[in-house]
Amino acid sequence: MRIAQVAPLYEAVPPRLYGGTERVVAHLTDALISLGHQVTLFASAEARTSAALAPVRDQAIRLDPAPLKSDLAAHLSMLHEVRRRAADFDVIHFHTDLIQFPLFEHIAGRTLTTLHGRLDLKDLPEVYRRWRDFPLVSISHEQRRPLPFANWMATVHHGVRADLFAPSAAPRGYLAFLGRISPEKRPDRAIRIAQRIGMPLKIAAKVDKVDEAYFREEIAPMLQDAPQVEFIGEIGDAEKSSFLGGAEALLFPIAWPEPFGLVMIEAMACGAPVVAFNCGSVPEVVEPGVTGFIVEDEEQAAAAVQAARRLDRREIRRRFETRFSATAMAGRYLALYDQLLAQGQPEPPLAAIA
Amino acid sequence: MRIAQVAPLYEAVPPRLYGGTERVVAHLTDALISLGHQVTLFASAEARTSAALAPVRDQAIRLDPAPLKSDLAAHLSMLHEVRRRAADFDVIHFHTDLIQFPLFEHIAGRTLTTLHGRLDLKDLPEVYRRWRDFPLVSISHEQRRPLPFANWMATVHHGVRADLFAPSAAPRGYLAFLGRISPEKRPDRAIRIAQRIGMPLKIAAKVDKVDEAYFREEIAPMLQDAPQVEFIGEIGDAEKSSFLGGAEALLFPIAWPEPFGLVMIEAMACGAPVVAFNCGSVPEVVEPGVTGFIVEDEEQAAAAVQAARRLDRREIRRRFETRFSATAMAGRYLALYDQLLAQGQPEPPLAAIA
After folding, report:
1. Cα(A46)–Cα(A164) distance, rounded to whole angstroms?
2. Which member of A59, A250, B115, B235 lies 3.0 to 4.6 Å from A267 by CB, making a disulfide possible if both were Cys?
3. Extended beta strands in chain A, E state
4. Across chain A, which distance is largest between two alpha carbons, in Å?
């Protein structure tokens, strides 16, 4: 099948450090190639991919030092180029939210749009009412809640490349927190849980400019009073296997409707169980008693960590491979692409059947 | 003529306080109505207008307290509605930068797009190369410099409603600075110029969140050492006539390529001369020796203030009325609308002429 993957231009594909959407697009693209398909990736020029790359910007926007840039203009130019080449593809798969709708109305039926962000924004319902013809994919069932009437085709949970993460059977006695320091990710809960059970905690996280005050005023003082908590900053893919593989459990104490939560499946890929708060996509990702536990408060979390240490780490990795590998994700997307193509084909005329 | 005016959704039309684009759209719309045309204004619901209002959002985005909103989605919904009603209009006039391009390709020739912002952004050239059919209006010749190859139809300088501003023949002995506290507006220069000539200066300006550090660290200390400088904060339209009419001169010491600079013509409307630094649109707006002076440094500015006090304030108002009233602006736009319609009309068949 000839497939176009259209990535956002904010981060490299895959991102150098933090970044979810572009990472998933990278892994999906490579998995589709492995399965024998022809894939063209529209992305910024520093993408690392086994697909044919259509480089539509010299570099990703976020880290581009140019003083004045327009993310809207950059995405419009990319989409103009995708449309110019639309006849080259059987299916065009967008990961760019809704900006593509005006350009692809004439072929909406052979596009697929995966929505990667939260959908509880005031202005969104009207857009999804006005552009009804675009088949949409949610990354969790929970993500759909604010837009139940939209043109949902399926939920496809994220996957990541299995070969990037080495499962470890022998954890090294600490808990892990991985991601971003921000109020909705609740690193404060992670610290209190570690204190409650007297286990070391390692926090690998970036601090965005917008979250610097939160870090300085809320988290830094907690770190000073908690000698068993180590803040190691932002880490890249190369360090994740060791960091997550060594953890007794990943703490995922979020307090916002996270549409997916990639770090949960990265932990599972390393054999680490997940102790997650009941929020957003968590109940769809964590299988209690198999790959981790779902909790409502810090007391339950502390108990769950002890239970999680008794889970079979090889079974966690197996569940990851079945449910959340990039290959599993690619298979689910291929089924949707097939469905689109079948719907798009006119019925063969009777003469041809006879 | 049946005309649609499509405003941005960031501020009310006109804005309650600071804001250029939505103010110009408000004044243009009212002037077109006064000249006998049928105008429909697409804008947020709190617009005050004599046109037919098509309210496409319950309120302007910037001051909307909703915690999560999408300016992209809001504008796409508005443009979808404009397109749905496109047959109702002879001409559709956009003030929304470039986001409308994908939706109006089929009728680009009867649209007009006024670009209100600076154009030296990295990602813009590619968009204007790809969408070549949209007739564009610049608000100064200088504004075009980064995009000389774009499909420019004309430059139309901004205008404001003459009846909103009462000209004053008797200034009250102070200099005025009106706008925003920010490094590129150079309020520091205004303060030093006032100190140099020993004249009071009144600063009416808002301080955006992003400029708070600049205000605190650079401007506030200067204010403490300059007792003749008074900082009076943000003012609305109702206070502008008195504030500008009382000024011996408006100081406009900018250090960035401002595409127009509405405050210069507001000052002229009140009879106040303008002392402006040679930057951006300034040479197109200020007529040296008639409506003010153009200077290169603070020393020249100090001398120019003294010379400006001898200019004829009634003549300044007359030049404003001729060149920069909303009616003058509306007349120039009507000529462009006529030109679009003429280009769009098929030649009458010979039989019809005979």
Report:
1. 20
2. A250
3. 2-6, 38-44, 52-57, 91-94, 111-115, 136-138, 152-155, 174-180, 201-206, 229-231, 247-252, 274-277, 292-295
4. 81
Longest alpha-carbon distance in chain B: 80
Q: Is A87 on the interface with B (CB under 8 A)?
A: no
In this structure, are residues B169 and B218 in contact, taking their beta carbons and an 8 Å threshold? Answer: no
Interchain proximity A123–B71, CB inside 8 Å: yes
CA distance A102 to chain B (A): 6
Q: Tell me the per-residue pLDDT of A137-175, one tens digit each, with 9 for 90 and over.
A: 999 999 999 999 999 999 999 999 999 999 988 999 999
Residue A121 and residue B64: Cβ atoms within 8 Å? no
Tokens of A43: 């992305």
CATH fold match for the domains B2-161+325-342 and B162-323: yes
Starting at the edge strand that comes first in sequence, how are the strands of the sheet with B201-206 ordered?
A: B229-231, B201-206, B174-180, B247-252, B274-277, B292-295
Average the pLDDT over A213-241 and give the result. 92
- Cα B182 to Cα A322, B36, B262, distances in angstroms: 56, 41, 16
Measured distance CA(A167)–CA(A177) in Å, rounded: 18
Do β-strands A292-295 and B2-6 pair in parallel, antiparallel, or remain unpaired? unpaired
pTM value is 0.92
Instruction: Please give the Cα distance from A223 to A233 (Å, whole number).
Output: 13
d(CA B44, CA B49): 11
The DSSP result for B289-338, as a single string, is TTTEEEESSHHHHHHHHHHHTTS-HHHHHHHHHHHHBHHHHHHHHHHHHH
Sorted by where each begins, the domain ranges of chain A are 2-161+325-342, 162-323
CA–CA distance, B109 with A116 (Å, rounded to integer) = 36
Please tell me the distance in Å from A148's CA to the nearest CA on chain B.
Answer: 17
Measured CA to CA in angstroms, residue A138 lies from A29, A97, A112, B189 at distances of 18, 11, 11, 54
Query: What does the pLDDT average to over A44-62?
Result: 96
* Nearest residue of B to residue A119, measured between CA atoms: B68
Task: Report the amino acid identity of residue A274.
Answer: V
The answer to whether A10 touches A62, Cβ cutoff 8 Å, is yes
**Residue A186 carries which side chain, given as an amino acid letter?**
R
- The CATH number of A2-161+325-342, from 3.40.50.2000, 3.30.200.20, 3.40.50.620, 3.40.50.720, is 3.40.50.2000
Residue A167 CA to residue A325 CA, distance in Å, equals 13
CATH class of A162-323: alpha beta
User: What value does the mean pLDDT of chain A take?
Assistant: 95
Query: Burial of B242 by CB count in 10 Å (0-12 exposed, 13-18 middle, 19+ buried)?
Result: middle
DSSP H or E run through A26 = helix A21-34
Distances (CA, A) of A171 to A168, A196, A311, B350: 7, 20, 12, 90
Q: Which pLDDT value is given to residue A349? A: 54
Counting Cα atoms < 13 Å in the Cβ hemisphere of A149 gives 9
CA atoms of A47 and A45, how far apart (whole Å): 6
- d(CA A66, nearest CA chain B) in Å: 7
Is A86's Cβ below 8 Å from some Cβ in B? no
